[in-house]
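Protein Entry — a single chain follows
Next Lines — sequence and tokenised fold
***
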Amino acid sequence: MESWRDEVDDLVEGLYRSLGELPYDPTPHHLYTATDLYATGEHPFTGSIDQLIYRRARHANMQTVPPAEALAQRLHDHGITVALDAFRHGRSIVGVMGGHHLARGSEPFRRAVELGAAVTQAGYCVATGGGPGAMEAANLGAAASELSNTRRGELVDLLAVAPSFADDPDHFVGVGLAVAQEIPDPVQNLAVPTWFYGHEPSNAFATAIAKYFGNSEREDGLLAIATAGIVFVPGGPGTIQEIFQDAAQNAYETFGSPSPMVFLSPERQPDYWDVNGVRPTLEQVFTDHQRNQRPGWDKVSFVSTVPDAVAALG
């Protein structure tokens, strides 16, 4: 429905009078692309509209948040949700969750690329948190899923000249944008990042970017739209949070029937999810106070290969 935009036109005009010209549209009509967010030239990241919005968001998120600014950001996020709902229509979405720390060119990065490709080839639409690391790898694999394994490997080789955004974010983003141009007809896939973590570049390989101001809305939404399941690869505290948030949503059937939770172990550490405590803790999560199994435990799989991860989604 588009009527909500008409209803807030007068309000938006008042916001402009109160706030001045905003670097973002408070009533967006579509999801972003990487070219919407990033600049051309020597400073594609630090000189981008993305970073201008991030600086604005950081200012607004101080303790003295101007009410008009907070309202403008809420309106923006509502518009993104409407556009995201339109993108989701007719698509079976699988989330890929994992850490932002994976260096381009590393073996875990390459494996996440192949995971994204395999999930897409199985007929799903890949969705990630949109950042670097495992998220970028999965989006790259999805976008380039119609290319050969060899060609995807070559694209990773090109990316590897800028392994981490921490070294030089402009070079990191510039290389990503250049490599994305090497994919002639990228397959549709999704990223759902946030300006809450705006210091991390949103990756260039998602064809649709649902970027939010509110991190909690973004996290809830990302887990909710992955109705065909989520594949988890190793990550840090953020990934652990997503695992148990997804488990709670499944156990309580928050969004209907539980969806698959697939845990892909590192190639050389098949007991990874046992050692880090995820598997035994999940066993407790899915057991109620009467020792009965809660909904969703039968949807949990621990696998060691990419083909097994895709098979567990079915």
The first strand starts at residue 93 and ends at 97.
